[in-house]
Design goal:
With 176 residues, the protein is an alpha/beta fold. It has eight helices and five strands. It has one domain: P-loop containing nucleotide triphosphate hydrolases (Rossmann fold), CATH 3.40.50. It has a five-stranded parallel beta sheet, sandwiched between helices.
């Protein structure tokens, strides 16, 4: 893949703080692809921040807007950084996978906590009574189920994670 651009999208999934946007931009530059951050598309569509949606309309409203935005997304040769809750929508994930490879950036809970700090300010789609630990466990199963490729972020900086994604994509392409 180092010398050819994939003819598909690369969809980044994972918990907030996993590096979807940062690694996604690095990956897009490395592979000569475009970059789409669906959290920004959601904010543009809704006319407010993700946290405003959660605070004023609830986490289900954020998931509904996210699903709508993802189902309308029709792009090619893009690295797509999804919001952490994209995996709750089977329809949206099926749509994304229809023209892409789903990459799960896997980091442990303690790293999520270290990276995101006060998660109440992050516009995270979760039930009001749900702890971050419960959310992590619930989403881990969904990320794993939807992933075509899983890349661990443990002990790696953003450039190393990017390189690991490229290697995993090359291996996937070679096996086709």
């Amino acid at each position: 893949m180092s010398n050819r651009i994939p003819d598909t999208n690369i969809i980044m999934t994972g918990m907030p703080g996993s590096g979807k946007s940062t690694v996604g931009v690095l990956l897009a530059k490395r592979l000569g692809l475009g970059f789409v951050d669906t959290d920004l598309l959601i904010q543009q569509h809704a006319g407010c921040t993700l946290q405003d949606i959660v605070d004023n309309q609830g986490y289900q409203a954020l998931r509904a807007v996210e699903e709508d935005v993802l189902l309308r997304l029709n792009v090619e040769q893009q690295v797509i950084s999804t919001g952490g809750s994209a995996v709750y929508s089977e329809k949206a994930m099926k749509h994304l996978k229809g023209n892409g490879v789903v990459v799960f950036l896997d980091i442990p809970l303690d790293v999520v906590i270290k990276r995101i700090g006060d998660y109440s300010l992050r516009g995270i789609s979760r039930r009001p009574d749900q702890s971050l630990e419960e959310l992590f466990e619930e989403r881990f199963e969904l990320y794993s189920r939807h992933a075509d490729i899983t890349v661990s972020g443990v002990g790696r900086d953003q450039d190393e994670v990017c390189e690991a994604v490229v290697e995993a994509l090359e291996t996937r392409l070679a096996s086709r």
